[in-house]
Amino acid sequence: QVQLVESGGGLVQAGGSLRLSCAASGSIFSIARINTMGWYRQAPGKQRELAAVITRGGATNYAEAVKGRFTISRDNAKNTVYLQMNSLKPEDTAVYYCRAATNDVYWGQGTQVTVSA
């Protein structure tokens, strides 16, 4: 089992920045099996969608809507993944969920990001 705890959400004006963090905990065996970690987001009335993912080796993938503005990074020693969000837009408003994948998929509880115009 893997537990994910997100932090760093909040309210920011358009053009501002936020940094999300997600710390994974659990058995050493489970943590060692985590390959991909990532951030997904769900806006009101919309389906959950990918924002960014990163593999254990550091390969990244971003949604087109966030490319050039968001940066995902990972500290394997701390079992933590980060999402640096710059030049935020009102359309980035959503609940942001951390996801970790082994042979199973684990989700965090979500953190609200609200961007005001």
User: Helical percent range?
Assistant: under 10%
Q: Which structural category fits the helices and strands? A: mainly beta
Report the order of strands and helices: EEEHEEEEEEEE
Strand content: over 45%
Main sheet: strands, sense, barrel: 7 strands, mixed
**Mean of residue pLDDT values:** 95
| Termini gap | 40 Å
Q: What does the overall shape look like?
A: globular
Task: Please state the CA-atom Rg, rounded to the nearest Å.
Answer: 14 Å
Total strands: 11
Structure annotation, total helices: 1
Return residue spans where pLDDT drops below 50 for at least 5 consecutive residues: none
Question: Which key phrases capture this entry?
Answer:
mainly beta; 1 helix; four-stranded antiparallel β-sheet; single chain; about 120 residues; globular; about 5% helix
Any overview of this molecule?
With 117 residues, the protein is mainly β. The protein has one helix and eleven strands; from the N terminus they run βββαββββββββ. The protein has one helix at residues 28-32; strands at residues 2-7, 10-13, 18-26, 37-42, 49-54, 60-62, 70-75, 80-85, 94-101, 105-107, 111-116. The chain starts with a strand and ends with a strand.
